[in-house]
Write a structure and sequence with these properties.
506 residues, mainly alpha, Neurolysin, domain 3, 22 helices, 3 strands, globular
Length: 506
């Protein structure tokens, strides 16, 4: 096979894999948003078959031969940036997949497809024992995966690398420890403040149909293209890209309007990333975010730096008041803004305040490390979960549904994913620092309700590239420096010292 033949065959395989993954994403969406319960086992099996076919193509002799020819030193210099990046991502995926036995991979796909409905039922009925055997097998398979992938120091490193290349336990432990210490220090000063926001605003039982109407009103103002996207409902809010012109998000509606609105803003951050990727990357290995952490930076940036800002609500709050006259007519914008940014340790990660959110991630990070190392098993999780919640956040879940069962991620088999949330927060603060320098009128645009220039800046600097750059390359391209955790702490200090009228740390 010469290089021209290899490139043609590679692009053919690349497009086929992209088509299959789009179909899998569509089935996944259906299973989480409306599929009848009795139909789940069959569709889980069907997903297993198609996922196994994807696995076979990715690890096929054809793919291996193409990559061998195209990545030879004598050929590397001939490729443009995108072709080189696509080959880089394909080779990485090929080498990882090649290490996993097909039978084990097929079992894993079917297991996790079924696990999602089992988890949902266990959460709904607060019955952890229903979910425990399935979760235990997912843990065991992930342990097997780490042995297949290989690692230098900690088995968890092999899983971290799937989501955020370049990060290891050795890097994250000191990073998270420092962030935890500085977060707890600020939290202590906040809790001592006598100038606390109102706590009664969001406990009034907001009508769910009105919440839905407002969320649809909100989407285009955020820049979400409703002709290339859908808003649905699910037990756990999520975003998925079927294609670059079919990006779907969900939220859930409870009595507290903050939950649905902030979830929609968060998931729209993911969706804008997907909708903003260069259409020429459709059907390639680059049609995705640079990493889970970079993807999360876009949702956290939109949710927190934009969606929790006073300026953002200056233009939108009158619309929310009109939607909920009885609940908000007598609530001032300032009181609403401060209440939206209440810092109060809570049970649920997705509803956590901006400051203590990372403590929720650290709990999951420590549990995952211990599970993958073999120190704890599924049966141990409820007790250890509650113990860590008490230690980190000072609260204890009264039920497993509000505790160990609250997240869907382990049902997907996604061990190594959770740290991406905190990395996303770190990236988002660094991006926020840069965008304010490059768009001096940033806050004025928010006040005017004009997010288009902000979306276009993100599209130009981040979204369009997909996976063309690695996360490290991308953050350095944007900011001129490597990931710097100080920006997040500075942002927290500046914001919450004003909300709570306390002295920022020196």
């Amino acid at each position: 096979m010469n290089k021209e033949q290899a490139l043609s065959k590679f692009k053919e395989l690349e497009e086929k894999l992209s088509h299959y993954r789009s179909i899998l994403a569509l089935v996944q969406w259906d299973m989480e948003t409306g599929a009848p319960k009795q139909g789940v086992p069959y569709m889980a099996s069907a997903m297993g078959s198609l996922s196994t076919e994807v696995f076979r193509i990715m690890t096929s002799e054809e793919m291996g031969e193409c990559l061998q020819v195209l990545t030879e030193e004598t050929n590397k210099a001939e490729w443009d940036l995108r072709t080189s990046a696509s080959l880089r991502e394909a080779k990485r995926s090929y080498e990882q997949s090649k290490k996993i036995p097909e039978k084990l991979y097929s079992e894993f796909v079917v297991l996790t497809a079924n696990a999602q409905s089992i988890w949902a039922e266990a959460k709904k009925t607060d019955n952890y024992s229903l979910y425990e055997p399935t979760l235990q097998r997912i843990i065991e398979i992930n342990r097997e995966f780490t042995q297949c992938y290989g690692y230098h120091e900690h088995p968890y490193d092999a899983l971290l690398d799937l989501y955020e290349p370049g990060y290891t336990v050795g890097v994250l432990d000191p990073l998270f420890s420092n962030l935890k210490d500085r977060t707890l220090s600020l939290l202590k000063r906040i809790q001592a403040s006598l100038n606390k926001p109102r706590e009664d605003i969001f406990g009034q039982g907001f009508d769910k149909q009105k919440q839905k109407e407002f969320c649809y009103h909100l989407l285009p103002k955020l820049g979400f293209n409703l002709e290339a996207g859908v808003l649905g409902e699910s037990a756990h809010p999520f975003a998925t890209g079927i294609s670059l012109r079919d990006v779907r998000i969900t939220t859930r509606y409870i009595d507290d309007v903050r939950s649905s609105v902030l979830s929609v803003i968060h998931e729209t951050g993911h969706a804008l990333y997907e909708q903003g990727i260069d259409p020429e990357l459709e059907g390639t290995f680059l049609r995705d975010g640079a990493s889970m952490g970079i993807h999360e930076s876009q949702s956290r940036f939109l949710e927190n730096m934009v969606g929790r800002s006073r300026e953002f609500w200056t233009s939108l709050y009158p619309d929310l008041q009109k939607t909920f006259l009885g609940e908000l007519q007598q609530v001032s914008l300032e009181d609403f803004y401060r209440s939206l940014n209440i810092v109060e340790p809570s049970l649920i990660r997705t509803e956590a305040d901006e400051l203590t959110y990372n403590l929720h991630i650290m709990i999951r990070y420590e549990l995952e490390k211990a599970m993958i190392q073999g120190d704890i098993n599924a049966k141990d999780l409820p007790e250890i979960w509650n113990s860590k919640m008490r230690e980190y956040l000072g609260v204890v879940p009264p039920t497993n549904a509000e505790g160990v069962l609250q997240d869907i991620h382990w049902s997907f088999g996604e061990f190594g994913y959770f740290p991406s949330y905190t990395l996303g927060n770190l990236y988002s603060a660094q991006i926020y620092h840069v965008i304010q320098q490059q768009i001096p009128e940033f806050h004025q645009l928010l006040t005017q309700g004009n997010l288009l220039p902000i979306r276009e800046w993100l599209r130009e600097q981040i979204h369009q590239y997909g996976k063309t750059y690695t996360p490290g390359e991308l953050i350095e391209k944007i900011s001129g420096e490597k990931l710097n955790a100080d920006y997040l702490i500075q942002y927290f200090e500046e914001k919450f010292s004003k909300v709570y009228q306390i002295e920022p740390a020196k």
